[in-house]
Task: inverse folding
């Protein structure tokens, strides 16, 4: 993990912003393919809460400590992480890793039949105590 988190910023550093977006998109594509092989995606059963649970599980398998919590009448699902899978120090040095996480969550949410939006509220990479993502 530490080798990977050190390599990503090194690969992205010399690239112009548009190429960085393309590379992050390609990396997210590869990870999404792995996730689809591991998790059963019955799009008819994917609601905000199940999306949040899958997102939390993926981050936990990477070494994080994430949990999903339904807010209200399932109008919002909060995915909260108190341990960064990339390492808190690495995420602070390279907040691009938080973008990668958000991209993964958005890809998982896109598999649901309803339109869902993933919003980043706080991240450990930005110096916050926890990562908080809202799935609306």
Result:
């Amino acid at each position: 993990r530490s080798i990977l988190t050190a390599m990503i910023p090194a690969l992205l550093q010399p690239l112009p912003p548009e190429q960085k977006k393309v590379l992050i998109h390609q990396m997210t594509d590869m990870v999404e393919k792995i996730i689809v092989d591991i998790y059963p995606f019955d799009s008819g059963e994917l609601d905000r809460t199940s999306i949040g649970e899958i997102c939390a599980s993926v981050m936990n398998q990477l070494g994080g400590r994430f949990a999903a919590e339904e807010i209200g009448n399932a109008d919002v699902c909060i995915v909260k992480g108190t341990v960064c899978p990339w390492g808190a120090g690495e995420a602070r040095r390279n907040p691009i890793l938080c973008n990668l996480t958000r991209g993964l969550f958005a890809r998982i949410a896109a598999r649901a039949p309803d339109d869902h939006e993933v919003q980043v509220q706080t991240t450990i990479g930005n110096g916050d105590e926890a990562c908080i993502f809202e799935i609306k």
Q: What stands out?
A: The helical segments are 2-12, 17-38, 48-61, 88-93, 96-110. The chain has one domain: 2-9+16-135. Residues 2-9+16-135 form a domain with the Muramoyl-pentapeptide Carboxypeptidase; domain 2 fold (CATH 3.30.1380).
